[in-house]
Predict the structure.
Amino acid sequence: MDLKILTYLVVGATFALYIGIAIWARAATTKEFYVAGTGVHPIANGMATAADWMSAASFISMAGLIAFLGYDASVYLMGWTGGYVLLALLLAPYLRKFGKFTVSEFIGERYYSKAARMVAVICLIVASITYVIGQMKGVGVAFGRFLEVDYHTGIGVGMAIVFIYAVMGGMKGITYTQIAQYCVLIFAYTVPAVFIALNLTGNPIPQIGLGSSMADGSGMALLDKLDMIVTDLGFAAFTAQKWSTLNMVLLTLSLMIGTAGLPHVIMRFFTVPKVADARTSAGWALVFIAILYTTAPAVGAMARLNLMETIQSGPVGSADGNMVYEQRPSWFRNWEKTGLLKFEDKNGDGRVQYYNDKNEEFATKAASFGWKGNEMVKVDRDIMVLANPEIANLPNWVIALVAAGGLAAALSTAAGLLLAISTAISHDVIKGMISPDISEKKELLASRLAMAGAILVAGYLGMNPPGFAAQVVALAFGLAASSIFPALMMGIFNKNMDNIGAIVGMLTGLLSTLLYIFWFKGWFFIPGTEMAANTPDNWFMGISPEAFGAVGAMLNFASAYVVSKITPPPPEHIQHLVEDIRVPMGAAKAQADH
Amino acid sequence: MSEQNNRQEYWRANLKLVAFCLSIWFVVSFLFGIILVDQLNAISLGGYRLGFWFAQQGSIYTFVVLILFYANRIGKIDKKFNVHEE
């Protein structure tokens, strides 16, 4: 069957499934809308959390990052999974015991301060909106490449689908849809990986295949072979470390505490019936996430190997060692059309030379072969996962499945973020600050309207992405790491932390991180306003702006601690509240109070 | 008074368990995956070098086991101190 028709069928079937679930799981009360009536089984919640968490970036971009960064990309793998350990051990069970709807509500009540709640709401909305732009872009790209529809139409269709199930079902609808989306995306991710691992190593399990020897009879380990191929062309070895150790440690830590502090992830743990369930649910979430995250390194390494071997098909430097451009495979042609892959025949020999011309030693050697510079002038990292099934010559239905998987990943994350935004507006701003006496029915209406509004804003920003869209993801993690995580952790583990200490801490963490990011990336990301070039020599102790969230968090902890020592301790009822959330007993009661 | 004491004892037991789990969390990721990666890469695990394996595979498996281990242990401690949910 024609690939395009097949893709329409597969994507259409998944969309019909999501809408069917939305009709079945409508929300009737605010409790169902915000926290799915706290009746979600921990394994189901774990699966929904995994879909919520794994975004278009995880599905599409991560393996590409690994393919080109090699070992250094480990920071993303460890950072985005290790955060769940912090979440399960330090935050989720206690926040579930507290038994309210939002993260900002906890901060507002624990620090008996509307100002603290306001700071938290602002961080939450900024972090969520920046994140959702990326998802909308992912939807547009996936539609554009596979269904050959216009980018804007693609985003429009995506918005309509999210609108139907998120506005109707709230958290309840989103949770059950996310479970379906998880199944689609994990199947779409692992099937091509299994085929490719089998092709290259004879072992169908990608995680084991990556550590096996090649099936080409050389008996060489796959990773050693990859190291050899890339270093032969002047690139750094795949398994070698390129970044400084300090920067790797801090970036990993920033991503971990940022993950644990992202409100749309924390919110998920309010949906389970018991405190004990919040703990196991985090474990289940990580099980489901780990299936993709441990497959990704295999996908990245194997895609790089296939790509290099396709282009450099013979010995380096021999006359016919390089692919003839006119004989390029069809995936090469397809991706050239999108502009994400670009070739320039610099030496006019009709063959493709792909090597590192920035490596002076190798460039001299290359010149002696008659090579005049790297001819693959653009190889976009993001195409690795999407082009993978085509590179490996897999059947059309696998390619159609990957399209549906990419859309599932983007839509599920977008829905979770939109819910976090609309809850913040209807529950924290409208009910919490503007009109506390609002009726249940009106609040539900308000949250539906806020959701609809958030979808329109997200769609608009997705269609007209601000130039800095890619940079702001670092901002989202920086904000969550430096402001939200420390405030939550101290609220639980330090009984004497008071309102002034917490607010000073949040502002110190937030402002220092923002300052550091803007210093190197321009004020509010406006090009030309950087105070110093964004290069390792200029960075403070070699710490990149993306890695500064961990430093901001430390400043937050330190300043909050000092201020809390010289200001009056929190009132007695707050100290009792902290004592109460530390024990699981009585969770049902806490929940009935709101 | 005894209720108060019991809760404090429970909290101390919990903190000890959390500290234990977080030290393993630190060792497998930051220590084995980043700081000692070169030393561990001298050892191979099939086609993997050990440091690289910890950074891209082993740390993630350990995180999963760690959370489930914590959930199980703290569940038993909840019962021991009689602070569990009904």
Q: What stands out?
A: Helices of chain B lie at 2-35, 37-40, 50-80. The mean pLDDT of chain B is 94.
